[in-house]
Design goal:
Strand content: 25-35%
CATH class: Alpha Beta
Structural class: alpha/beta
Mean pLDDT: 90
CATH architecture: 3-Layer(aba) Sandwich
Low-confidence stretches: none
Order of helices and strands: HEEEEEHEEEEH
Number of domains: 1
Helix content: 25-40%
Shape: elongated
């Protein structure tokens, strides 16, 4: 009888970790949003790694930073680090917007002497109380005869509730950031 209880106890303990395991998170990525192609960009553009605010440096998607607290989406995560994803998406969006330019990321395998360099700081990328997604930060373009810097505050309204709509609005705000950067890069010559 004692042997039977011991086996049941061991079987129960073996099943315990499987019952307590948390489900796999749902992974999301920003989408590349097409923009208006522009001519007159530099021949070669290097996009520096996007710098993001420390509160965004996490796997979980930050829904909001309002009212002095962070609201995280616990089981809904980014599919890659947000700073790397923003850099990758900006390179793709600028490649589409500046068809006469070669655009590459500074940490990629391909590099060349750039005619212009783009640097971006993202200080906020989350949802405000009014429901709008806010992307704010600074853009700097170096190259040519002068450096250009600009602060930006870009917004996009999610099409509905839920994480997919939130991420789509974040993608739209990132596309607007690429539009601003492309406008700054047009006319820059080495």
């Amino acid at each position: 009888m004692m042997r039977l209880h011991r086996r049941m106890l061991l079987a129960g303990l073996a099943a315990l970790p499987a019952g307590c395991a948390s489900p796999n998170p749902t992974l999301y990525t920003l989408d590349v949003v097409p923009g208006v192609p522009r001519s007159g960009g530099p021949a070669v553009v290097e996009v520096r790694s996007v710098a993001i605010a420390r509160y965004l440096e996490r796997s979980q998607i930050v829904r909001s930073s309002e009212d002095y607290r962070l609201e995280l989406l616990g089981s809904e995560w980014w599919g890659e680090p947000l700073d790397s994803m923003l850099t990758r998406v900006l390179v793709q969006e600028l490649t589409q917007r500046l068809p006469g330019s070669t655009v590459y990321g500074e940490n990629g395998a391909v590099s060349a002497r750039p005619d212009a360099t783009l640097a971006v700081n993202v200080g906020r990328l989350d949802q405000a109380k009014d429901g709008l997604v806010v992307l704010s930060g600074q853009i700097a373009v170096t190259g040519g005869r002068r450096d250009i810097t600009r602060s930006v505050r870009l917004t996009a309204r999610p099409a509905g509730p839920g994480t997919s709509a939130l991420v789509a609005a974040m993608s739209a705000a990132t596309g607007a950031l690429a539009d601003e950067a492309a406008g700054m890069l047009v006319g820059v010559r080495a």
